[in-house]
């Protein structure tokens, strides 16, 4: 039972780490001479421009930022509630509250990655002065980590739903 508990804790911490990296790091869209994320656009690793309300489609990026931050917060809250439920639940009960919060985190990261996937091309076309080299770019590792975090939080949420407290 301790091995299962350790696996669940490590899996949850890994999910949170993936969410932190995907939210903070600057690699949602990368190319040879530039990289961009939901916070800024950098050309030649030196010329960085913060994304602000002068960008066309800024509200879309704010939605992505907000849902990624919310997802990370919910994942951390779910972990804290899981630890509390380990000591407070009666034997045989399920970790439903932890599961619900973790699945909400999953939903938030899915929404953020889906919005970015759908609106990225329009964002780049509408802001050519910031995204000059868009045709050479590809999705970066932060974007991929966001989708991996979606899968991890989904599996974690299902594990909590199925899991019962044992002695």
TrEMBL record:
<comment type="similarity">
    <text>Belongs to the PMP-22/EMP/MP20 family.</text>
</comment>
<feature type="transmembrane region" description="Helical">
    <location>
        <begin position="139"/>
        <end position="163"/>
    </location>
</feature>
<keyword id="KW-0812">Transmembrane</keyword>
<dbReference type="InterPro" id="IPR004032">
    <property type="entry name" value="PMP22_EMP_MP20"/>
</dbReference>
<dbReference type="InterPro" id="IPR003933">
    <property type="entry name" value="EMP-2"/>
</dbReference>
<keyword id="KW-1003">Cell membrane</keyword>
<keyword id="KW-0539">Nucleus</keyword>
<keyword id="KW-0472">Membrane</keyword>
<dbReference type="InterPro" id="IPR050579">
    <property type="entry name" value="PMP-22/EMP/MP20-like"/>
</dbReference>
<keyword id="KW-0963">Cytoplasm</keyword>
<comment type="subunit">
    <text>Interacts with PTK2; regulates PTK2 activation and localization. Interacts with ITGB3; regulates the levels of the heterodimer ITGA5-ITGB3 integrin surface expression. Interacts with P2RX7 (via C-terminus). Interacts with ITGB1; the interaction may be direct or indirect and ITGB1 has a heterodimer form.</text>
</comment>
<feature type="signal peptide">
    <location>
        <begin position="1"/>
        <end position="16"/>
    </location>
</feature>
<dbReference type="InterPro" id="IPR004031">
    <property type="entry name" value="PMP22/EMP/MP20/Claudin"/>
</dbReference>
<keyword id="KW-1133">Transmembrane helix</keyword>
<comment type="function">
    <text>Functions as a key regulator of cell membrane composition by regulating proteins surface expression. Also, plays a role in regulation of processes including cell migration, cell proliferation, cell contraction and cell adhesion.</text>
</comment>
<keyword id="KW-0333">Golgi apparatus</keyword>
<feature type="transmembrane region" description="Helical">
    <location>
        <begin position="63"/>
        <end position="83"/>
    </location>
</feature>
<dbReference type="Pfam" id="PF00822">
    <property type="entry name" value="PMP22_Claudin"/>
</dbReference>
<protein>
    <recommendedName>
        <fullName>Epithelial membrane protein 2</fullName>
    </recommendedName>
</protein>
<keyword id="KW-0732">Signal</keyword>
<feature type="transmembrane region" description="Helical">
    <location>
        <begin position="95"/>
        <end position="116"/>
    </location>
</feature>
């Amino acid at each position: 039972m301790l091995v299962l508990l350790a696996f669940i804790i490590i899996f949850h911490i890994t999910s949170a780490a993936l969410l932190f990296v995907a939210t903070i790091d600057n690699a949602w869209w990368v190319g040879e001479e530039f990289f961009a994320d939901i916070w800024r656009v950098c050309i030649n690793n030196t010329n960085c421009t913060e994304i602000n309300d002068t960008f066309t489609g800024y509200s879309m990026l704010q939605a992505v930022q907000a849902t990624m931050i919310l997802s990370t917060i919910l994942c951390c809250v779910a972990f804290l509630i899981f630890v509390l439920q380990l000591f407070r639940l009666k034997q045989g009960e399920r970790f439903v509250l932890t599961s619900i919060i973790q699945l909400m985190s999953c939903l938030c990261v899915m929404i953020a990655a889906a919005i970015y996937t759908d609106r990225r091309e329009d964002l780049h076309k509408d802001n050519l002065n910031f995204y000059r080299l868009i045709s050479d770019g590809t999705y970066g590792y932060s974007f991929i980590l966001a989708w991996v975090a979606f899968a991890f939080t989904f599996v974690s949420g299902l594990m909590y739903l199925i899991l019962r407290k044992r002695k």
